[in-house]
Amino acid sequence: MISVKEAKNIVLNSPQDFGVEEIPFIKSVGRILKEKIVADRDFPPFNRVSMDGIAIDFQSFKNGQRSFKIEGIQAAGSEQITLNNSANCIEVMTGAVLPNKANTVIRYEDVSTENGIATINIETVCDRQNVHQKGKDGKIGDLLIEENTIISAAEIGVLATVGKSLVKVAKQPKVMIVSTGDELVGVDEIPLEHQIRRSNVFTLVSLLERLHISSETAHITDDKPILKSKIEAYLQEYDVLLFSGAVSKGKYDFLPEVFDELGVEKLFHKVTQRPGKPFFYGKTSGCNIFGFPGNPISTFVNCLAYFYPWYYKSVGVETKEETAILNADATFKPNLTYFLQVKLESKFGHLVAFPISGNGSGDLASLVKTDAFIQLPNDKTEFKKGESFPIIRYR
Known about the structure:
The structure is a single chain. By secondary structure, the protein is an alpha/beta fold. It has 4 domains: 4-18 and 172-315, 3-Layer(aba) Sandwich (Molybdenum Cofactor Biosythetic Enzyme, Chain A); 22-43 and 145-170, Molybdopterin biosynthesis moea protein, domain 2 (Alpha-Beta Complex); 48-132, Beta Complex (Molybdopterin biosynthesis moeA protein, domain 3), CATH 2.170.190.11; 322-393, Beta-clip (Beta Barrel). It has helices at 4-12, 58-62, 153-161, 200-209, 224-237, 255-261, 296-315; strands spanning 20-24, 37-38, 48-49, 53-56, 67-74, 88-92, 104-107, 111-114, 117-120, 131-132, 143-145, 166-170, 175-180, 184-185, 196-197, 215-220, 240-244, 265-269, 273-274, 280-283, 288-292, 322-326, 330-331, 337-347, 350-355, 372-376, 382-383, 388-393. Strand 8 and strand 9 (117-120) form a beta hairpin. Helix 1 packs across helix 7 (296-315) and helix 4 (200-209) runs parallel beside helix 7 (296-315). The model has no long low-confidence stretch (mean pLDDT 93).
């Protein structure tokens, strides 16, 4: 067996390049940007009016003038007009170009208008107030979005602003999720007393959807020739295979020997952790294989602890470790890294973890009551309230 740290290092040292594709920008939320986005012009591209009101030459106000004849209207989206007489004003709309020879905007709330004359009713006016200066947010050629950014709604707005109707993003891996075991039946079936419904495969589907990765699913019975035949085809067709079950020491846990017979390079099998110790990881020239133990919590934590970081490394996204403070003492005696389920709360600017007792790695329902796993190291058995440890969120 190897340590959690060693296992994670091996996984992270085996990234896979899925390539790049160009897609409509509006479909790119959650995808990984694979180009730098620069300003195609100044932002804003003109001196922009930021309040409905009147535009004046500030010098006239400074000289004591308070009433201004309205010379015209500058609407948003219309070509720039000119203030012909510095003693006059132009009505302006939010988003409009600031009229030529005007430099200051007074909002309508501070003005009274009668018979074509606008009178300013406040004593304090600042030069260039309520004007969003050309280029203040960015100059032409400025870098607006870094490559390898995860695209959110904020980036979508910028992409639209610079005219990027098509955007380059990392291709997503082609993934097959496989469950094994004769005891498993479909979700819509009534299980016999010795059977259970398939659940792990759908948990994995959902965990991948959080990464905007589509996946296919299959179920294979505990029959070695059938396992071997189907997996041989999957290895040629998919970038990633995720398995749930059949990697431990049971008589029907055929996967490790099937992988060996099919030429899969075993990088490790079994990690000093709980839950999820029988975890298998290997690869071929074109496919990465994650063999998760069949217990629900084991599958869940291993996907988060290993597949997620591997995916982010493969697509060039840097991630930061998050920690939380234990709110209660915890004890764990085996010499294993322990992924303890916790409820998270924010208190006085700190993230606090409340340990939640479950009924082992088969207690799928316990996930509903918790938010994360806190990773307790294997170099001690007592973990004190107030100590900080890394966490893996799933909410």
